[in-house]
Prior knowledge:
The chain is α+β, with helices and mostly antiparallel strands and 263 residues long. It has helices spanning 2-16, 30-37, 41-44, 48-51, 53-56, 74-80, 83-89, 152-158, 185-189; strands at 111-115, 121-124, 128-129, 137-138, 145-147, 160-164, 170-175, 192-195, 200-204, 211-212, 227-231, 246-250, 260-262.
Amino acid sequence: MDSIKSSLLIVGLLLSHGITMSSGLSTISRRRYLQWQTGGCIATATTTALSNPSVAQAANLKSRTEGYAVQHTEREWAYILSGAQYNILRKGGTERQKSSILNTYTTENVGSYVCAGCNTPLFTSADKFSSGTGWPSFSTALQGVEEEELDPIRATLDGKEVRCATCGGHLGDLFNDGWIYRGTSAAKTGKRYCIDGAALIFKPEDGGEDVFGDLPPPNRVIKYEQRYVISLTRSNLDTDAGKGGTMKEVGDENTLENDEIAL
Length: 263
């Protein structure tokens, strides 16, 4: 266990010094990224089975629809959510580090963080802390957050997925390395909820305007690789994918339009 803690400490130090992913690594999950940063140190502390990517990195196969109170078809979700929200909440994607305005928010921004898909309360500003990872981080969660069921060893070494308990939307990952962040609320709980900002909406306690997490930080443009999207409208939601839609090239926009799906 000491070797595991040492490896995790190295990760914390690297991230606290501003080490970030290059654009070529932007699609790597947080779990793979943290292991990559340690140069395989964590793998040496695990069994062969756990160090096997096909085992340790197995995706949570639980349906994001069945059993949840709020359900929509994938087409409906694609219409309701922005491109970034859809990619994370419904496809389990990971946003780029420091790409969300909510990563810049602190406990001084008093309010609650709700699911961008169904408005379920997930986190409070009192539990937010600066982890230096580039993703919004919280030391504890509200009852609206569902945690993946994993054995303690895998959960500690590999982290586990967290979802919205109401709609099944992917939120991010939970890591048991809160003890690294001394002087923060995470050091007390031992937990770090590493959340994709685009999956959240911040609701100020004073009744101010909602802040959508798929927006970039102030004065920053997030450049994405060019890709094509299908533009859907209400009139063609009930048709086959692409019929009646229009194709267009997307350049440096931070997010897709509310009615677009990335191909």
